[in-house]
Amino acid sequence: MDAATKDAVVETLRQRLQGTPGESLIDEARQLMASDDGKEFVMHNCVRYRPKALYPPGYHYSDDPREADKRYGKAIIPHLLRRACMPVFIAKRSGRFIDCEGVPDWHYVAMVRYRSQRDFFNFVLAIGAAGVDVHKWAAIQDTVVFPVKPLVNLFTVRLLVGALLALLTAAFWGFA
User: Fold this and answer.
1) Which of 60, 76, 66, 174 minimizes the C-alpha distance to 125?
2) CA 31 from chain center: how many Å?
3) What is the b/e burial string over 76-112, where b = at least 16 CB atoms within 10 angstroms of the residue's CB?
C-alpha cells in the first residue's frame, strides 16, 4: 500500500472514530500498515461477549450478544467475498488448559484470511460506512485481534479454488 493510500485510510478512520472508544485504533492501524508487505495474511481474533449486547441509542435489537454477533457475521460475508477474503477457522472455546492471570475467558476464536492489508482496510472502511460494525461493538466486551503469517498451512485459497475447478471439470466431463 503506498503512502497516499495509507494516509487516506488513516484520515477516514480518524473521521469515523473521532470521539469514540475506537479512537485508539487509529495508531494501531498506522502500526499495522507500517508492516505491510502486500501479501495475504490471516487475522486472528479472540472474542469475549458482553453480558448483554450494548447498542447505541436508536437501535432496537435484542440484548443477546450472540444474536448481535450473528447479525455481524452474516452481514460481513458479502464484504469479505467481494475482496476474495474469507473466514478459514471459527471455533468456540471447549475447555481450559494453560491460563495466564488476567487473561479474559475468550468465548471463541476466528481466523479470517485477507488477500492483502489493502483489502483488509477496504473491508474495515466498507463495513463502517454500511453501519455493519455496530453489531460487533454491541456484542463484544473484549477482543484481541492480530495478523499472523502461516508457517505451515495445509489450507490455501488457491488449493480450494484448484480443487473446486478439478471437481467441476470432472463433473462436466462425466468422470465423477
Assistant:
1) 76
2) 17
3) beebbeebebebbeeeeeeeeeeeeeeeeebbeebeb
- Judgement on whether residues 113 and 59 belong to the same structural domain of the protein: yes
Cα 53 from Cα 113, distance rounded (Å): 27
Question: What is the number of domains present in the chain?
Answer: 2
**14 near 26, Cβ under 8 Å?**
yes
User: Can you give the pTM of this predicted structure?
Assistant: 0.80
**Residues 110 and 126 occupy one common structural domain:** yes
Are 21 and 62 found together in one domain? no
pLDDT digits (tens, 9 = 90+) for 115-147: 999 999 999 999 988 999 999 999 999 999 999
Q: Are strands 108-114 and 86-92 parallel, antiparallel or unpaired?
A: antiparallel
Q: Which residues contact 163 (CB under 8 A, 6 or more apart)?
A: none
Domain that holds residue 31: 1-36
- On whether both 96 and 153 belong to a single domain, the answer is yes
pLDDT digits (tens, 9 = 90+) for 44-86: 999 999 999 999 999 999 999 999 999 999 999 999 999 989 9
